[in-house]
Amino acid sequence: MKRAMLHTRDFRWTSISSTLLPRLALAKEKPDSVILGITSTGKANIEKYQHLAKECIETAPKPNDIRLFWNKAGFTRLALIQLGENTNATSVRTAAASAAALLKKNGAKNIAVDDMGHPAAAAIGAALGTYDFSLRRDQLALTQNNSRTEKKDLFGAEPSEPVSFTHLGDETKKDDFHTGLIEACAQNFARSLMECPANYMTSVQFCDIASNVFKDSSKVNVLVHDEKWIDEQRMNGLLSVNAGSVIPPRFLEVRYQGASNADDKWLALVGKGITFDAGGISLKPSANMKEMRADMGGAAVMLSTVFAIEKLQLPINVVFVTALTENLPSGSAQKPGDVIFMRNGLSVEVDNTDAEGRLVLADAIHYVSEMYPTKAVVEASTLTGAMLMALGTVYTGAFVQGEELWSKIDQAAKATDEPFWRMPFHDAYLKPLTKSSAADLCNVSRGTGGGACAAAAFVKCFLANKDDVFAHLDIAGVMNKKVNAWDFDGMSGRPVRALIELARLYAEARL
Ligand SMILES: [Zn+2]
Asked: Could you say which residues form the signal peptide (predicted)?
């Protein structure tokens, strides 16, 4: 009854998906601004602009120095950037991000980007470097019965329009530039999903967005499963975490069938979908708790990865699943000491309600590995604070079962500058979790250290076949810190581009 009433009046139920849907930043109009790269040896990538090289070397003497001109070479704004002696994908991504951010700050709307010999990297740098996040009041007004419609963001500032881009350079490289824009668009989509306040980003909203993203695609099926289905599936991990929330859980299943052979095995993607994590009865401290709106970062990066895979029409079958709920304290919330019987039949004692991610992941991992013949199951989650302690904000911790999968992840990481550090899967980490007198497993171990390793060993127990090729990616550390020039000072959307590259490697291996 309580839920039915909320349905009619609560803004949390009204769609904001049009605000958050990914938008490919491909310019249709004539560019007002331009980025041009010049090497330290005085060579312009584009012959037509060679005459500007001397000016660049003189006024921007060090690599990554930028000189901004007004009304020059046919553009309102011209950014000359010094590239150093040699360029590679990383240096071009950095250069494009820095120059595009500067142009945007100076009012650019439509930027022609010199590909600097690395078209995908130039597009990615420019599109990631100009990202920002705002929810516009006029888009939210309808949902809150608010008659005000002025175009201000929630904080009263004028929202900045997104910048768009055109390719400048060797015409035959145009497609690579477009591919780069798609990948950056996917990462920006993940950033927006993670940034979105939790009162708008609920289990229901997340599914609504997924349905809208793929509504015109003939190769994607979006299945939104409700509480009744979740109950029939015996996903008690998800139901138990959801018990403290007035918003019902959802189980989202997105299938992309791109392989020419319908029997091709699936690349299964699993993401943690806790739309807000207060910790439950084991309440978190209030400092920085607002960041826990991004505890659905795993689901956000996986949905965005499927978005890019579909846009790129990769010849591969991919299924993405996520169990979506909030984790809140209330009179009906799960309690420390509760015992849950999981989908695979194992019983779990909930010693700490803030270790809820592994409970919802356990049911999702078991479901997908039981229902689909998979070539690999790859799961991403903002799972443990211990991961941040171990690797800081630079590396994603990768727990991997299967050498071929690890070699692909490593290759994808190096191609995209989204680094992964291999962490250990070892059954010994599970031992302290089996000490419960009430259940097969406890959801936390105390005083043993290695919290990220114990969590990894826990989720691996729920594979339907214990030898399945499997990766658990703990992205808690890389959730929201600025490391590179193309990073945004907020939720990172990492490691979307590495995951797209991983899918591409699997697709190519098949061909
Ligand atoms: Zn938690």
From this structure: none
442 Cβ contact partners less than 8 Å away, ≥ 6 residues apart: 348, 349, 351, 433, 434, 435, 436
**Active site residues per annotation:** 284, 358
Decide if 378 contacts 298 (C-beta within 8 A): no
Burial class (CB in 10 A: 0-12, 13-18, 19+), 278: buried
319, β-bridge pairs: 255, 268
Confidence grade of residue 4 (pLDDT, cut at 50, 70, 90): very low
DSSP-derived 3-state class of residue 413: helix
Compute the distance from residue 282 Cα to the ligand 1 centre, in Å: 9
CA angle 306, 310, 311 (to 5 degrees): 115
pLDDT digit string, tens, across residues 239-274? 999 999 999 999 999 999 999 987 899 999 999 999
CA 339 to ligand 1 center in whole angstroms? 17
Question: Residues whose CB is under 5 A from ligand 1 (ion)?
Answer: 277, 354, 356
* DSSP secondary structure letter of residue 342: -
State yes or no: pLDDT of 8 exceeds 90: no
The CATH classification of domain 11-191, taken from the options 3.30.559.10, 3.20.20.370, 3.40.50.1000, 3.40.220.10: 3.40.220.10
pLDDT band at residue 86 using 50, 70 and 90 as cut-offs: confident
- Its CATH class, for the domain covering 196-335+353-427+449-510, is alpha beta
Q: Check if the beta carbon of residue 453 is closer than 8 Å to that of residue 474.
A: no
Per-residue pLDDT tens over the stretch 121-174: 999 999 999 998 877 655 554 444 444 444 555 555 555 678 999 999 999 999
Domain spans in the chain, listed from the N-terminal domain onward = 11-191, 196-335+353-427+449-510
